[in-house]
Amino acid sequence: MSNGCICCTLREDLLKEVERLALDGSFDYILIESTGIGEPVPVAQTFTYIDEELGIDLTKFTRLDTMVTVVDAAQFWRDFYSKETLRDRGQEAGEDDVRGIVHLLTDQVEFCDVLILNKCDLVSEDELIKLEKALHAMQPEARLIRTTHGQIDPREILNTGRFDFEKASQSAGWIRELMKEEHTPETEEYGIHSFVYHRKRPFHPERLLRWIAKWPESIVRSKGLMWLATRNHMAVSFSHAGTSKQLGPAGLWVGAMSEEERQMHFGDTLPPIPDWDEQWGDRVTKLVFIGIDMDRAEIERTLDETLLTEEEMLMNWRELKDPFPAWS
């Protein structure tokens, strides 16, 4: 598939063609090679959800067996820390495609069950091990396979039975860290490890932005929710990979919902919410940091300095300066 936008221009063709091939009965296995700019989730959804508009349900006669991502061992870090977009490289799927290289690369690594490290002959053994450990931290469930010139035993990627949509959706390293009840940081060889920053106090927006501007280079990947004092009703999602950092609305805190809104979302019974606070409800900051030779103590210390002080906790938070853009 040469077009990366599977969700719009190619999905219908893919559905129809796979259905035709499956019903023909001549093939036992279909190997779909997507373009390097293709997003994995829409492809997986094609095989796991019914298309009511077309009346096609591929789950009746097909199963998605394996999701494979190929990583260029010699190019990975260059792409990961690139500020380029697909448009900059002339690889955009359409006029509205503004995706960054690092965003696509991260999506492909975090949603797969087999990771092939190709071009291993172009990097040293130490570099390979470091890359493997970083990829494992980002996607701990995927099987890592080294290759040169793309040579691989077909049995490594065909009929593996590894793929499970729900499991794949929850298998990224940052998700697994957030789901742990307790996190014991493990410092691995080559200094690659992760930890969760968990605080029940809001950030001061100006100080937080200054901290982000001085982002520690040792952090490779981070993601989670933030509590921002000036957006007290709204959870803030944060995602970082390479040089890219994105903040945006993630929905209302349950503690900020009216009784009518809670009834609409949860019915008569509010489910148990971990760390519920009588004053602040479920408002919390939980950020996963994955990195190389990170100084956890320094990261936590400097981040703590961006939280509201005791005096600021008593102020009208709406009066605080907020340099972040407004969200519709």
UniProtKB/TrEMBL annotation:
All residue ranges annotated as the CobW C-terminal domain in the record: 192-307
SMART domains: CobW_C
Catalytic reaction list: GTP + H2O = GDP + phosphate + H(+)
InterPro entries xref list: CobW-likC_sf (IPR036627), CobW-like_C (IPR011629), CobW/HypB/UreG_nucleotide-bd (IPR003495), P-loop_NTPase (IPR027417), Zn_Chap_cDPG_Synth (IPR051927)
Coiled coil feature spans: none
UniProt GO molecular function: hydrolase activity; nucleotide binding
Domain of life: Eukaryota
Keyword entries, A-Z: Chaperone, Hydrolase, Nucleotide-binding
Keyword NAD: no
CDD domains, A to Z: CobW-like
Homology family: Belongs to the SIMIBI class G3E GTPase family. ZNG1 subfamily.
Protein name per the record: CobW C-terminal domain-containing protein
Provenance organism: Phytophthora kernoviae 00238/432
